[in-house]
Amino acid sequence: MRASATTDAPIATDADTIVIGVFEGKGIPHDLEGGPLQALVDAGEARSTFRHLALHHGEGKRWLLVGLGRRDELDPERARVAAATAHGRARELGTRTLCWELPHHVPDEVAAALVEGTILASYRFDRYRTRSDDDDDTVLLDEVVVSAHHDVADAVHRGAIGARAQNLARELEDTPANDLTPTALGERAREIAGVEVEVHGRDWLTEQGMGAFLAVAQGSDHEPALIVARYDGGGGGPLLGLVGKAVTHDTGGLSIKPAGSMHEQKFDMSGGAAVLGALQAIAALALPVRVLAVIGSTENTIGASAMKPGDIVRASSGLTVEVNNTDAEGRLVLCDCLAYAVAQGAERVVDIATLTGGVVTALGSTYAGLFATDDELAAAVTEAGEAAGELVWRLPLHPDYDDQVKGRYADLVNSEGRKAHPIQGASFLKRFVGDVPWAHVDMAGTAHDTGRAYAAKGGTGWGVRLLLELARSLSATA
């Protein structure tokens, strides 16, 4: 979908459908001759109730009125939701070009969010259907235009780039594991423009001594992949390390998961998808920042050579790990990835992963869990999440929790029961970053089927906007 901005009035554009926001206690700012739009408001057919829709035909165009609630409540996230709501109705109407009239006196971020919500709502994953959900006669939206009194072209461009990158992550998440193998994910990484990519397999991992990562991979016939991507946009800021977990399917191994939800375990690569999506957007926007992305991709499955509860493995850092639970595999993958990112010179490290079910119990699908060894980095991630509409909630990393990951027969244990399980995972990972400022985002509750208006079902691409905003903020302060 194309996206553009204009300072022309909506009626002067080529749009066949124009969206006007209705605020509580406010009139229609630019009505048609005779005031038909205000008449809809006065009659109660159009209302300020958030997401309420009303339709008028006039002067050769459709006029879609969308309730936006109170003016002081309109933020980028509400704009995304409103845009997705308008997109749904516009699509039913056969809209080709949709024009939003940007409300007066709102930040440019709202313009970006209107574009994001529209493009995200347009996402469809029907590659495997012999016949699409859409009828052959369905008209698909080609373009979204934002009409404003001032130039918002930069914001619109930024929103479009970010939304397309998020849709890339969603496509990767939704692709079944029999097609999106670790090797296939590596090939998709190579397609990202402006980024140098290396993909390393089992032999290289063995040479590097990545025994924790390899332990997870040893049960699968599919080759694991350590995906290393580098983007150099210059700037004087620190080298940002982005580390993602990309377990393309997780059976839980011999500590097997329940059958009823195992089909959802293709989403266990969502952290890696978020890193790749963010990297695509960072490169497309040519941000003046340096990024090292490290993505650990493998299956965690059951086979004759699969790791067993009680096994002891050695990570690349030299630490040994007692594997009490083969379903706590994400931290085994990530620990070697984190150590590698640090060894390659990353000066700030953020990892993102669908790590624990415990964080879903604690925070649901509204917040992801945040853990950090550095207050400044934690604040930067939190602020980036708030700006992006992808919220994180910081949880503690008290030294007492370190006792839970001390091994009986090895240096560490990968799991010790359900008590404070998300913190256990973070305490484990902390041991592999040394003194480098580090933050860990446990996104297990936000990765798929969250019911958000612009990404209701399937993979959400959560984390792309957060990581992109983090990179933007670091480049701005360099």
Give an overview in words.
This protein is α/β, with parallel strands linked by helices. Helices cover 33% and strands 21% of the residues. It is built from 13 helices and 17 strands. The strands form three sheets. The protein has an eight-stranded mixed sheet with strand order 7-8-10-9-13-17-14-15, with helices on both faces. It has a six-stranded mixed sheet with strand order 1-6-5-2-4-3, with helices on both faces. Strands 11-12-16 form a three-stranded mixed sheet. Helix 8 packs across helix 13. The mean pLDDT is 96.
What can be said about this structure in brief?
By secondary structure, the protein is an alpha/beta fold. The protein is built from 13 helices and 17 strands. The protein is elongated, with a radius of gyration of 24 Å.
Average pLDDT reading: 96
Reading the helices and strands in chain order gives EEHEEHEHEHHEHHEEHEEEHEHEHEEHEH
As laid out across the biggest beta sheet, the strand order is 7-8-10-9-13-17-14-15
Overall geometric form: elongated
Number of strands: 17
Number of DSSP helices? 13
Kindly state the percentage of residues in helix.
25-40%
Tell me the strand percentage band. Answer: 15-25%
Task: Calculate the terminal CA-CA distance, rounded to whole Å.
Answer: 33 Å
Main pleated sheet: 8 strands, mixed
Alpha-beta content class: alpha/beta
Radius of gyration: 24 Å
